[in-house]
Design goal:
2 domains, nine-stranded mixed beta sheet, 21 strands, Conserved hypothetical protein from pyrococcus furiosus pfu- 392566-001, domain 2, 26% strand
């Protein structure tokens, strides 16, 4: 069973937290994101998107990551960041404008628990992202965004004393509330409840988890054997699908595409949008301003994302590795139909593929079986803001 640990967080003060915390989805266009970075010297995007402040290539992190490190030091010097003076668990609640609330604990988890599969994964990762995050942690010596973990159990958050840290609103109309648990008896009560849970499951942040293991393996000069996580009861999570966008190297004619799909699917034109897929083993295809409905012919135990991966991505488009192939991209359902269809209509991509979201029970079953899903199989909320609670990797004193 995995363990959790209180820690002394680095964090913005209440006066600056609204200007510091950052999420790239606040600025869906890169031009707006660049504008935000230029105007807001406090935004944590100077760490997570530091390449946008440098005219060189994104593939050269050694050239722009020093700017991210300078930002951390500058925020400390200016008093924008403060270091907590006692170990704590941090209770974080996010409330959307529709009233939906997500609440859990930000704590440290052991990298050994990740290695030993007490913290279980379900999704494949992209090697390029893994490499970048290792370099980011090594250069800045901080992790600014926790991995989202889910559990099935009872943790008595309402039965312990908490101190207010801050409460603030963000541009996406979400309210964020952070409190801390510092009393030893309350910390022990939370640790005991967590100790009764068999496993944690990675809901969001597979790259962060994998990169902290790699970071720990490669760098032995820092106290990096623990990693920051946001741990929530699994029934709080909301899962949306990622849809696939494909631009093949060799164009496929529409008639040829339909003929190929017909080997495994019943294919029919649809006068209605299929952005919202309601049934399992049913999919939408959007190409040339036309929706097609796909219904799998044969019964299967495969999950929908695996069906897409095997029978469309690989078999029709010849994409053998969705983790690395530039022909495929991923569109979160929450970004909307208009954006997705626009990317097909303007020729950026040739085709979009939509599917129904899976359940977290299905995700858990995949993890328990030691299997993985294709990359970007689930879009899980809540999405956390970077720079709100920060784990700092201290230098090991010899």
């Amino acid at each position: 069973m995995p363990k959790i640990f209180p820690f002394e967080a680095l964090r913005p003060t209440a006066d600056y937290v609204g200007m510091v915390t950052a999420k790239s989805t606040d600025f869906p266009n890169q031009e707006d994101l660049v504008h935000e970075i230029r105007l807001n010297s406090f935004t944590f995007h100077h760490v997570t998107k530091s390449h946008l402040s440098y005219s060189g290539a994104f593939q050269e992190p050694e050239k722009f990551l020093p700017f991210a490190s300078q930002y951390i030091q500058s925020m400390k010097t200016k008093g924008v960041f403060l270091k907590e003076d006692e170990p704590a668990f941090y209770v974080y609640e996010q409330i959307r404008k529709d009233g939906k609330s997500f609440k859990g604990i930000i704590a440290l988890c052991s990298v050994e628990d990740y290695k030993n599969n007490n913290i279980k994964k379900h999704e494949e990762i992209r090697p390029s992202r893994l490499k970048f995050l290792v370099e980011l942690f090594k250069t800045t010596k901080v992790m600014g965004e926790p991995t989202l973990l889910a559990y099935n159990g009872i943790v008595p958050l309402e039965e312990v004393a908490k101190q207010d840290v801050f409460s603030f609103l963000t541009v996406d109309e979400k309210k964020h509330i952070v409190q801390k648990i510092t009393q030893p008896e309350d910390i022990a009560k939370i640790e005991k409840a967590m100790a009764a849970i068999d496993s944690f499951y990675i809901a969001d942040g597979h790259h962060r988890s994998a990169s902290t293991e790699e970071f720990n393996r490669k760098v032995n000069r820092l106290q990096n054997d623990r990693t920051m996580c946001f741990i929530v009861q699994e029934d709080q999570l909301e899962i949306s699908p990622f849809h696939r966008l494909i631009k093949p190297v060799s164009p496929i004619l529409e008639d040829t595409l339909i003929a190929g799909l017909s080997a495994h699917f019943i294919v029919s034109k649809s006068a209605k949008s299929l952005y919202e897929v309601k049934e399992k083993n049913t999919f939408g295809i959007y190409t040339n301003k036309q929706w097609y409905n796909l219904k799998l012919k044969a019964e299967t135990a495969m999950m929908d994302v695996d069906i897409i991966e095997h029978f469309i991505v690989r078999e029709i488009y010849g994409i053998s590795d969705s983790k690395t192939d530039s022909q495929i991209s991923f569109h979160p359902h929450t970004s909307g139909e208009q954006m997705m269809c626009g990317l097909v209509n303007d020729g950026t991509y040739a085709v979009a593929i939509t599917n129904k979201a899976c359940s977290f029970e299905e995700v858990r079953n995949v993890s328990d079986a030691g299997k993985t899903l294709p990359p970007k199989s689930t879009y899980i909320e809540p999405k956390l803001r970077a720079g709100m609670i920060i784990q700092e990797f201290e230098v090991i004193k010899k």
